[in-house]
Amino acid sequence: MGRVPVGDPIPLRFDPTTKQRLEELAADIGPRRFGALVRVAARRLLADPDRVPDALAQARRASADARRIPWAERPLDLDPATSTRLNELAHEFHTDRSAIVRVALHRFHTGAGRFRHPVLREDARTDLTCRTRVYLNRSTLVRLEKLISRNGDAPTAAAIRVAVRRLLDNPGDLAADLPTIGASRDLTPETLGPRTNVHFDDELRDQLDTLAGRLDSDRAELMRLAARQLLANPRDLDQAVTEEIYRGDANRDLLIARNTRRQTAAANQATAAPAVRKAPSPQGNPFGKRHVFRFDEDTKRRLEELADEYGPRRVSALLRVGIRRLIGSPRADVDLAQARRVAAQARALPHDLVTLKLDSPTAARFLALAARCEASPRDLVAVAVHRFLAAPGHCRTALIDEAATAGLNEKFKVSLRPSVRRDIEQLADRHGTRLSSALVRVAVRRLLDNPADLASDLENIAPVHDLRPADRTARVDVALDDELLAHLDALADRLGSNRQELVHLAAQRILRFHNNIEDRMLDEMFRAQNNRKHLLAKHARRERIRRMDRGSDT
To answer: Do residues 380 and 366 make contact, with C-beta atoms less than 8 angstroms apart?
Structure first.
């Protein structure tokens, strides 16, 4: 009497945070419920296919915003005539010079032709008296340098000027290239965890493939969207997962009854007093079963370097020593609170506090919009600045008029990410000095005049980059006996933590304070009494050989 098969497995990959939250949600429902939970997410996504295109577009925009690489700032020296033509072209298309230069470099890459002699002639010019700063994609500069360095040195600046002059001589369909090429940004690749196989029946898989083909997507992207939607609204999951698991009619009642008995037994076991666990016998294997814990790459490397001082494959013993020291420490709660504060500070990106000054009518409209959308002033300013930086257009006149505005009596304390503030200052410096505040006010006025899809932007743009993603991807297997596990679980219950967090804390503590742990390591490595003397002698021989290889006679 078992579960009904659900078809062939298909490989899926999620980001580490989503995968961890799905596993925790599935563990709360019952053992081995991850696959059923993912299938429930897929069925809920397919139940309303009309909403999938907008949700997929929003998810792609949010992912692109989170993975954008900052522009590379580059000085560009031009002669006065070329500088004037470039400014007139930017004014004509209501854009900035950087976007035009990005289009020019894209065209240069796609159809460079014979460029050696024009670049050499351009590099020898001496009438370049007009300097401007442009903002380009870093990958574009790398490709350009590789292209022109085939003939020796890489006069990148001269190649950029050649590309600009070619575009000025033949603008072509610049109106179509500016929104597609000029606005494109470099993106870092998505951080996805290892592959997870989930069984899908033929009907569900065909529905996913049909929807993916219609939206120019694939199964993996749709399932990541389905998982995020499920985590955002985890309603009635117990019943849905039960329906997904026990879909056969023959043994349905018996399987549901068995699942009810298991849940009742688990609830009784949780409320009952924990049983006293005996330590394993010292004969044979004294370390117990292996358990998997996750660390970042740097912590794992430092653990391996410290464990190598005591012999090969000693990381597990080193971590057990750290766990025992943590369990016996009277300051475990203080150390855990400090580690959580440090982790929160490391994940949280700093925000710079700024003051937004508005006149009274604009401030009233601003507060009314915030109340209508149930948003804070900080979120509205974040969305306004994001929209403005994405499409600044021709803003010089509005910026100068805003700088001369008087009667700014209303003040709002808001915050901006450092990267956003840097982009604002760089954009404002192109039009004059000390215009950053005026530029923010222009962005806010544009938002008030055209809120558009503000609810979607508040959900996807305002929270972006608040936290860095977790990077604990290195796996370490640690053998823990029943007694040590009982003490570790008791400490986790007392501190409101879990095994993973406490083992990570134990690793951090043992890396900071590892003086005089030789005896503890020996006791931990050689706990079996039947061959303890033999293992100690073998370890002593290894130590003598290791020290002789290092040139030490001690």
So the answer is: yes
The SS3 assignment for 514 reads coil
C-alpha 353/C-alpha 323 separation (Å) is 41
SS3 9: strand
| Cβ atoms 123, 155 nearer than 8 A | yes
Tally of helices (H runs) and strands (E runs) in the chain:
26, 8
36 Cβ neighbours under 8 A, 6+ residues apart: 26, 241, 244, 245
Beta-ladder partners of 467: 348
d(CA 445, CA 457): 16
Both tokens assigned to 406? 């008087």
Nearest to 218 by CA among 387, 69, 10: 10
Q: Beta partners for 133?
A: 75
Residue 120: helix, strand or coil by DSSP?
A: helix
pLDDT tens digits, one per residue of 518-554 = 777 777 776 655 555 666 666 677 667 766 665 544 4
Residue 249: which pLDDT band, with cuts at 50, 70 and 90? low
Task: Give the position of tokens 């494959």.
Answer: 313
Tokens of 285: 């294997």
Q: What angle do CA 251, 257, 261 make, to 5 degrees?
A: 140
